[in-house]
Design a protein that fits this description.
The chain is an alpha+beta fold. Helix content is 35%, strand content 17%. A hairpin with a 5-residue loop joins β13 and β14.
């Protein structure tokens, strides 16, 4: 036995989770006791050190406005804030540190559980830094260059108490989702058509919204008080009542600050976009366009929740009378809402692996979610996929044609001569050998720069317990040319705003999904040679002025290092339209 290690005293049993008290939604949301609504939630366990610092997350409490740096204690197995009065939580910076750590850890776990693997960050470090008091400003954002989530605050004044963005559950989940998405699809920060930036914002809001719904105390509070038997009237859970629920709001407190007290910053679910949203210039702004996805997700949640409530209505309560109407158990109704939120969130997250690595549009998300869900849940007995397709198509979003190849049923299956099947689960070089061997069959032109960007194994678990092992690889293609050369190759004229000598950068790429035996199942792609898409992208970038310092198109949009999300989140504070 190594000297200095006493295994005899190590009697603590291995743990997978710890329970932490977190603010359930926002400090402005009060429970029935008129105190800030909190919840004790299960968070994946990690050994922590002072900071607190864990394997994937670390809190760095440095305030650039005051120069103050605080190193907080490690998180104990027993939550030290379990019984602390809520008023103290607002001012205790150690709790602020626990709140951002616990909320971010819980969000990361939701993604890793749905995707069946550990997820990489979009930067080199193993730990995402969480800075709860980064600056004295009503903003919060993710910075890839800093490998950090930076949370601002509004100092107290004569009219209000201090407001900390790090205490808003919605905001912390939103920013953590940006970091997770950047690790999964780092090319989604490249200059592109408006759906791509809007996806980052919209999906982050969706995860925040559904994460709130997954906590029963929050739902019970929103459903209103129950009678002495714990029951509420059916009218409170009718679809129209659910749509008007306060949980439709995102980031209440910070929205009140930025909009001078006029309410939540974004109420996408309560004010869905008009039918002609795609033709309106206001929807070119990422947050505004992202609201389309949020509205769709909220409506899907309402419909799925309503489906799950039906069995409760089929068993009438003996205590119900005609005058009072049908009632339901509030705890059961809340439980079904939490399950609906969790199910929808898992369904949406699973689809991320089936997205193309570049040039995202909303149709790609619909296609990816349907493909991924079909793999894990072949029999859609409850009709959730049909509901998803119907809702998206009603908003004018349809599954794209000719962007997916079902390789297993193809008349020209790929070659595997000399290929190491085990290598296709983890080796970028082996996947490139496979791609090079089958480039013609897969319709990939190897004239352009081509690189395998990631190869990640997954193990998804279906509702019946069936494990679906897969390996997901992404490849990127890229070429630089002038606008004049683009016109010569494509035969398409670009906008008059683009000088023929302007340098442009074009992207293409795809996602390869292999089964557990190493056989290619699906090829999801965006062709670099889709010249009409490239024309739309370049014209859009020119129209919106998204050029780099050398006036090139498609290379970058000129945003300063580390400020991509900072600029996006503070782009229109005066009107209260952006978070």
């Amino acid at each position: 036995m190594p000297e200095g290690i006493d295994f005899a005293d190590d009697t603590e049993q291995p743990r997978t989770h710890m329970t932490l008290r977190l603010i359930a939604q926002d400090p402005t949301v009060l429970g029935e006791d008129k105190q800030i609504l909190t919840a004790s939630v299960r968070v994946p366990w990690s050994r922590t050190e002072e900071g607190p610092r864990g394997a994937r997350l670390q809190v760095i409490d440095y305030d650039t406005a005051t120069g103050e740096y605080t190193r907080h204690a490690a998180i104990d197995s027993e939550d030290s804030f379990a019984d602390v009065p809520t008023a103290k939580l607002m001012t205790d910076k150690a709790f602020h540190a626990q709140h951002v750590y616990g909320t971010a850890a819980r969000t990361l776990a939701a993604f890793e559980t749905a995707l069946g693997r550990r997820l990489p960050w979009g930067f080199a470090n193993h730990q995402l830094s969480l800075v709860p008091h980064a600056f004295a400003e009503a903003n919060a954002y993710y910075s890839r260059e800093d490998g950090a989530l930076l949370f601002g605050y509004v100092p107290a004044d004569a009219d209000r108490e201090a407001v900390y963005t790090c205490l808003s559950h919605d905001v912390v989940v939103h920013e953590t989702t940006h970091a997770v998405l950047d690790g999964l699809r780092r090319r989604y920060l490249e200059p592109a058509l408006p759906d791509q930036a809007a996806f980052h914002e919209g999906f982050a809001d969706i995860v925040a919204l559904l994460s709130v719904f997954s906590m029963r105390p929050v739902i019970e509070r929103a459903l209103g008080p129950a009678d002495k038997n714990g029951r509420i009237r059916r009218a409170r859970v009718e679809p129209e009542a659910l749509r008007k629920n306060i949980l439709a709001k995102v980031a209440e407190q910070i929205g009140g600050v930025l909009t001078q007290g006029r309410g939540a910053l974004r109420e996408s679910a309560r004010k869905p976009p008009p039918a002609d949203w795609a033709d309106l210039s206001e929807f070119d702004e990422p947050h505004r366009r992202g609201e389309v996805l949020v509205a769709l997700a909220f409506e899907l949640l309402v419909q799925i929740w309503w489906k799950r409530l039906q069995p409760l209505f089929s068993r009438p309560n003996p205590g119900d009378d005609v005058g009072r109407g049908i009632t339901v158990d509030r705890a059961r109704a809340a439980e079904e809402g939490a399950r609906a939120a969790s199910q929808l969130l898992t369904m949406l997250i699973r689809g991320l692996d089936y997205l193309p690595p570049v040039e995202f549009d909303y149709g790609d998300l619909l296609n990816a979610v349907v493909l991924a869900d079909t793999e894990v849940v072949p029999d859609d007995d409850l009709g959730y996929r049909d509901l998803l397709i119907d809702r998206f198509e009603a908003a004018g979003i349809k599954r794209p044609q000719n962007r997916v190849t079902d390789v297993l049923s193809s008349r020209q299956p790929p070659h595997y001569l000399g290929i190491n099947f085990a290598g296709l689960r983890s080796d970028r070089d082996e996947v490139f050998r496979f791609l090079w061997l089958n480039a013609l069959r897969l319709g990939i032109k190897t004239d352009y720069y081509t690189v395998i960007e990631s190869v990640l194994p997954t193990q998804r678990i279906g509702p019946d317990g069936l494990i679906v092992p897969e390996s997901v690889a992404t490849y990127l293609q890229m070429v630089n040319m002038t606008a004049r050369e683009f016109t010569a190759i494509s035969g398409l004229e670009l906008s008059s705003q683009i000088d023929p000598a302007t340098s442009v950068q074009l992207f293409g790429g795809g996602t390869l999904v292999f089964d557990q035996f190493g056989r290619l199942k699906l090829h999801i792609f965006k062709r670099l040679t889709d010249w009409k898409r490239q024309q739309r992208r370049l014209d859009y970038l020119a129209k919106t002025g998204r050029r780099d310092a050398q006036q090139r198109l498609g290379f970058s949009d000129g945003t300063a290092r580390g400020q991509a999300f900072a600029r996006m989140h503070s782009s229109d504070l005066s009107s209260g339209e952006a978070w």
